[in-house]
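Chapter summary example: a protein plus S-adenosylmethionine.
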Amino acid sequence: MPHIIIDKITPLSFPVKGENCEFLFKAENLIAVQTQNAKFLIQTRKHKNGYLVKYDKITRPLISEIKKAYIDFAKLNNAKILFENISGIKEKLPNKNLINITDDLSNIDIVEVGFGSGRHLIHLAKKYPDKTILGIEIHKPSIEQVLRRIEHEKLTNIKIINHDARLILSKIPSNKLHSIYVHFPVPWDKKEHRRVINSDFINEAKRALQKNGFLHLRTDSENYFEYSLKKFLEFNKIDIEVKKNIPYEITSKYEERWIKQGKNIYDIYMKSLEISPEIKETFDFSFEKRLVNLDFTPKVYNNFVIHLEKEFKIDDAKSLIRATIGNFNRPEHIYIVNCEKPYYFKLPAPIKDNYLAHIELKRLFNGQISNSK
Ligand SMILES: C[S@@+](CC[C@H](N)C(=O)[O-])C[C@H]1O[C@@H](n2cnc3c(N)ncnc32)[C@H](O)[C@@H]1O
């Protein structure tokens, strides 16, 4: 981990400006840093003959920003740098095809969920050169590999996001998508709640699809096929087409394996037959008043969790709370500055489950209602 060791720490009064950074406040061993491009925390800890300074993983910015903070911090403390391992670290340049959950998704036309080795994703990009394809994948090595292929093939119409697909569709405008592909999703026979196909996902997919747009599920699991068919049939104004053992335009790595084993392959095409209402969700993550009666036991709800983990004192009137909030399967680690009018040190991603957790968090710790749901 990129860090430095300095020989001393002198008492600083915050906020204090360095050459390239402003140090906003200190909460026990955490120090808040603002640079022109980023806002993050660094940590200090006593270390043999000096003090170790490292970055905080939750708010981690680019290495270039961390370097600025370390250097300014050492200077402000009039400290000598006894050790550093940052000058040799080369920044991995952000890849223009890799986007973030906070980016605008209103120009996406086609979505592929869990693209794995990316064969079908690349095929889609070539088949539809005028459409923008979004690939959503949780497995980082697959993403790295596919990004390299996109660059090699000079494809300009693919965007990739490293996130849980179940949370992303809610960010796509209504009636926008031409198609959504879910090919060979993990069947999760013993953990149904982890399946990509569920009622919420289908609901969001149907809303985001154009009228006559379709979702294509292809699976080798009879169990998953039957489960999904039942889930699709919970919905109205849809057309369902089912196929069995029909070759598809491209064979994925997984499919090759299943075909060799003589397994059956099932397809479900769910077409949306209606125009869905527009969504106008702007998530307001503000707080009105100080959070009180803090309770550090995890709270688990149907779709989300709230877990206040630790409180760090800033001064008599302020503290920094580290917490986990949001979707049960993909919660977010965040910090809240708790004061007269609290605020998130960095805003949570603007998605529904984070917002629901935020509303509940305010309700729980407003000092009026008991902490039980
Ligand atoms: C069995 S593989 C199939 C890959 C590819 N579609 C194919 O047909 O070869 C399932 C893929 O889905 C990804 N995945 C599983 N759950 C996911 C989720 N919730 N969101 C996005 N990707 C997911 C996995 O990382 C894995 O790469």
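Key point: The mean pLDDT is 93.
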